[in-house]
Amino acid sequence: MHPLPHPLPQPQAGRRAVAVGLPALLVALLAAGCAGPLPPVQWLRLPAEPAGAAAAVARPAAGPAWQLMAPVPLPGHLDRDALLVPQGQAGLQPLGGARWAEPLRDAVPRLLRQDLGRLLGAPPWTAPLPPGVRPARQLRLEISVLDVGADGRSVRLQARWSLADPSGTTAPQLGEAAFITNASGADADALAVAHRQALWQLAQRIAATP
Description:
This protein is α/β, with parallel strands linked by helices. Helices cover 30% and strands 26% of the residues.
């Protein structure tokens, strides 16, 4: 008669790992159950018309044609649809459930063209140009800052641009701007309006480039 085989050793290490992991899993489940509901989504758009623009500016006669060169670079974090506000020294966090209904990379160039059209008499052209259109000036624009201010009640904007003769016969005219636009409050709606006003101020400065 053959002796009975010895029972296989139990995987003690594996059981200990499971035993150690279970409390952490329970804690995570309890934390998830105790967390409050997510804030409702609030969809925001930049208003089509900046406040006070109609009364402040009389539309001039159309001057030499401009062309807005694409793209208009924005900081990478603005690709997100959340309205971000400062947190600490260098952090950002979403403002509740506030979300941009239109990507800022699309809304910003569109509204700047509209504002420049109000100031110049005709909006800048964009590529592809229709036959027969020969812009006298090409606008290249980069927005390096478009953020809610540290106080949570303002919008900071920094930008630089150049206006060039497409023929290259004259040197480009360079410009830059850095300013703060105050909001009427710290809520998402007020901050969206302040973003729009900041773009209007930027358009005014670009249009004033010699």
